[in-house]
Amino acid sequence: MTKQALDDQGYAGPVSVFDAEECARILSSVRAEAGPPPTWPKGWAAGSPAFHRVASDPRILDLVRPALGDDIVLWGTSLIVKAESDIHPFHTDVESMAPEGGFVTVWIGLENTDRSSGLKFVPGSHRYGVTVQELNHRAGIGRDQSSDETTLDAARRHDPAAEIVQPEVHDGEALVFDGRIWHGSHNKTKAVRTALLLQYARADRPVRIPRRYTWPLAFRTSPKPPVVVVSGAGQRAANRIVRAPRRSRQLGNGAHLLPVARLKPGETFASFQHFWGATPTLTDIECHSSILAPGSSPHALHQHLEEEILVVVSGTAELHIADDALGSVNAERVRMGPGDFAYYPAHQHHTLSNAGETPLLYTMLKWTNYGKPDDRRAARLAFVRAGGIVRSAAPGIGAALWQVRSRWLRRLHAHVSVLARGEGYAPHADRYDVAILLLAGSVETLGRDVVAPALFYHPAGTSHGIRATSVEPARYLVFELAGRPSPFAAIARLHHRLANRARRAS
Ligand SMILES: [Fe+2]
Ligand SMILES: [Fe+2]
Ligand SMILES: [Fe+2]
C-alpha cells in the first residue's frame, strides 16, 4: 500500500508504528543526545546510537523498502519541535529534491500530534519537477508572505485540481513521503508538538549538504555528508559511507534515581529511560520507569522478543496477561503492590493498568542476548510477591525469592535484602550483571549516598558495594542476570578476576 500511495500522491499513511510507551522512551533516549549534531544539522544519522536505533527499526524499514528497494542509506535524522502556533511554510526538502527521486522521508509524531499539529501536503506535487521555493522566488514571494493560498495558486498552475491535505495523524503514527513533495506545517494546538524525522535514500543517490536553504540553492562539494547503510549494500561512488554508530554501547556501572510518582495536569502517562546498552553477558539491556494515572494503561496487549521484569515501586498495578493480542486466550489479571514483581518470557502478551487511586510508578528491565535462544526448560511467566517481605532471614543476608533459567539467560535470580543502618558489604565484582532496586531507606554505593527509590546497575566485572545509611532499614530487590557463554564472557571473567585481585591487594 505504501508504494502505490507514494507513487500516486507522493505520501502514504498514517501508519501506526509505536505505542505510547515506545514514543515516550524514544523521546527520552534521543533527547539525551548532548550537544549539537556532528558535521551538519542532520548529522545525527551517522553519529547517534539512539537515533540510529529507531531509524533501523525493521518496522520502519519495511515502510520505505517498497519505494527504495533493498539497498538503502540513512542520511538525516532530527527531532522536530514545534511550539504553539509555529508555522513551517510549504517547501520541498532541498537535500532530497533531485528530480529523479529515490529519496523517502519518514515523519513520526511523538508528542501532541494531531491533524492540527501534523504535516500538510500537496498530493502529486512530487511530480511537478519544481520546488515551492523556486516558484516563490520567481514570483517575488518571501518566506513570510508564503501561505497556503500562494502555494495552492502555484500548484494549480501545474494541476488545476491541486489541493492541500492534512492527514489525521496521532502520536506513534508515521507519514511516509517522497523527498520531492511540497509540505509544510502549522501547529494550531496549545502544546509543543514533537516529531521524529528519518530520511533515507536509495544507495545510488548522492546526498548533498546545502550551503544555504534559500533560493537560489547551492550545495557543498565537501565535506560529503556521512551516510549509514541500513539495508542491503551501500555505494561508495555515490556517498561517503560510515560505520553505523554502535547499536549497543557498553554500559557502565551506574546509580539511577527513579522519577517522582507524579503527573502533570491532564497527563495520563510518562516514561523515563534510565539506560540501554550492552554488558559482558547481555547483547542488549534497557531500563525505564513509567508513571501511570489511575485507570489508565500505556498500551494494548503486546509481545516482543525481549524478556522483561516489571517491578511495582509505588501504587497498585493490575497486570493483564494473555496468549494472544486480543486477550481471549488464557487471559489473566493479577494485582500487584509496591515491591512485587513479574517476569514476562519472550513473546508473552502483556500490558497493565493502574488499579489504585494514586499514580502508579513501575520500573522495567528488558533484555535479549547473543545467539540462538534456548527454550529448553526456559522459565514461564511468574508473579513474585516480594512486597510483603520486610525483614530478611538474617541481617544483611538476602531472602532468596526466585531463580530460573530463561530463553536468554543461563540463570536469572532474585532476592530481597533488608539492611539495618551500617550493614552492607564491601566492594567486589561478580561474573553476572546485578540490578538492585532500592525501595526503602538510603544507602551508600559507588561513592554516593542514594535515597530510595533508585536503581543500581552493575554489569558483570564492575565493582560495587553497599552500606545502609538511613535510620529506617534499607530494603532492596536484587536481580542477578547471568548470560550464556559468549565471546564477551571471557572478558567479563578477566575483569572480575582483576577487580577482585585489586581489592584484595588494597
Ligand atoms: Fe520538510
Ligand atoms: Fe513490554
Ligand atoms: Fe554483588
Please characterize this protein's 3D structure.
It contains eight helices and 31 strands. Strand 27 (442-445) and strand 28 form a beta hairpin. Helix 1 packs across helix 5. By secondary structure, the chain is an alpha+beta fold. The chain has helices at residues 2-9, 20-31, 44-47, 49-55, 58-68, 132-139, 148-156, 487-505, and strands at 11-16, 72-82, 87-91, 103-111, 119-121, 173-178, 183-186, 193-202, 210-212, 218-219, 226-231, 240-241, 254-257, 269-279, 282-292, 307-314, 317-322, 332-336, 341-344, 349-354, 360-368, 382-384, 399-404, 409-419, 424-429, 433-440, 442-445, 448-451, 454-458, 463-468, 474-483. The chain starts with a helix and ends with a helix. The strands form seven sheets. The chain has a seven-stranded mixed sheet with strand order 1-6-4-8-2-11-12. The protein has a six-stranded antiparallel sheet with strand order 13-29-26-31-24-23, with no helix packed on it. The chain folds into two domains: 2-241, Jelly Rolls (Sandwich); 254-505, Jelly Rolls, CATH 2.60.120.10. The protein is elongated. It binds fe (ii) ion (3 copies).
| Largest sheet composition | 7 strands, mixed
CATH topology of the largest domain: Jelly Rolls
Strand arrangement within the widest β-sheet reads 1-6-4-8-2-11-12
Query: Quick check: average pLDDT?
Result: 88
Number of domains: 2
Helix/strand/pairing category: alpha+beta
Regions with little confidence, pLDDT below 50 for 5+ residues: 393-397
Bound small molecules, by name, code or SMILES, are: fe (ii) ion
What's the shape? elongated
CATH architecture field of the largest domain: Sandwich
Kindly provide the radius of gyration, computed on alpha-carbon positions and rounded to a whole number of angstroms. 26 Å
Number of helices, counting only DSSP H or I runs of 4 residues or more: 8
CATH superfamily of the largest domain: Jelly Rolls
Number of strands: 31
**Percentage of residues assigned to helices:** 10-25%
How much β-strand is present in the residues? 35-45%
